[in-house]
Fold each of these.
Amino acid sequence: QVQLVESGGGLVQPGGSLRLSCAASGSIFSIDAMAWYRQAPGKQRELVATITNDGSTTYADSVKGRYAISRDIPNNTTYLQMNSLKPEDTAVYYCNAVIRSIVHIYYGIDYWGKGTLVTVSS
């Protein structure tokens, strides 16, 4: 019923930039919050950035000042602008959203995208 689809990953050199996109589609009533997570090889998934309906944002310390999360509410889309990328930013990046579907309008459910790979290497 509800899908999240990420795009924008790829190979970039250290110091470069990438912009990830995540579009939510399906039987959506509203979206409470959206977020980006990442999982590097051999590591646990970690929270990178979040954004709420009122535009409030939070960032992991490791990306503060380099990443920026934004949201296009009418189009149910979130973006992650990643600048000054480092090799340690290499990971699969996942989109997450708390969504109220038309079937469950009174509470939100966690949805996940399938992820997009970001590789930072020279």
Amino acid sequence: QVQLVESGGGLVQAGGSLRLSCAASGRTFSASVAGWFRQAPGKEREFVAGINQSGAPTYYVSSVAGRFTISRDNAKNTVYLQMNNLKPEDTAVYYCAADLTTYRLRTKDHKWGQGTQVTVSS
């Protein structure tokens, strides 16, 4: 079982950038698809970006496509989310997850960690 710890959040002005990291433990991480999710106050958690085991392909929710980039370093057991041109509506707690397939990643109720808070001021 893969355990994940998110970091890198913070407070940034609109138009700014942040890079989130997700450190994984467990021997199956390199065999897992991985992704980022977010949950804004009063809203349901939503899928943001995903990446296959080898680093490609990647896929994004339409609201972040062109602004966010997901990547991974299997040697470091880490998944990243580079977020550029941040908007106030990106404010949320960001979580990462990993699973064996994209379908399971996006539909399974994962054992979520604490996440990392991203706050974008206008």
Amino acid sequence: VQLQAFGGGLVQAGGSLRLSCEVSGRTVSNYDIGWFRQAPSNERDLVAVISWDNSVRYYALSVKDRFTISRDAATNTVSLQMNNLKPEDTAVYYCAADENLRDTNTQYISYWGQGTQVTVSS
């Protein structure tokens, strides 16, 4: 399984960005897909997860009502729409896949994409 993340960049506070994670390789139809982020000197934190069947979406409290995660089964792509961005959202964002993503320690997650940098200026 390969995950490739796109869409990072530099934006002013209050702006929007859309991250995409393209999934290829063996089928991941029964895998949760999610986004994590890691700021310098911080741990890698869970931002949002969408369940394998699209029935459940989870958001960290810090991004709830600003970020939206979605999954397109036809293109094997998971997107993260980020609105009303704040300087504290600045981090490297990673997409990841596992069967039970929310309950899996980051060091044991099966698949990771490369990071994409998001920088929000004040």
